[in-house]
Amino acid sequence: MEKGRVHLIVEGYVQGVFFRAGTRDTALRLGLTGWVRNVPDGNVEAVFEGPVENLAQAIKWCRMGPAGARVIKVKEKWEDYRGEFKGFDIRYSY
After folding, report:
1. What confidence tens digit (pLDDT) does each residue in 52-71 have?
2. String of b and e for 28-58 (b: at least 16 CB within 10 Å)?
3. Domains and CATH numbers, the chain
4. Active site includes 5?
5. Catalytic pick from 20, 24, 43, 54?
6. Annotation marks residue 29 as catalytic
7. Are 67 and 14 in contact, with CB atoms under 8 Å apart?
8. Which pTM value belongs to this model?
């Protein structure tokens, strides 16, 4: 199973709607590692690592988000797998 890494910037109405918690739950369900955080410009940033097929599912979830979110755009940057994370964390500082 091929592994990869993807860095996302999720734009839209994505803060204050449990986007980070939903992202963490999705990542854990899919067996992915990484982190998610709010950024000062109102967007959400996330890094996922794991099987490429599962990364695609996480991206699909981020394009929808939780109820109450209005995702306008998801910027994806694919990178080489690094294996640097032990779990999936919500980060609270930028």
Report:
1. 999 999 999 999 999 999 99
2. eebebbbbbbbeeeebbbbbbbbbeebbebb
3. 3-78 (3.30.70.100)
4. no
5. 20
6. no
7. no
8. 0.95
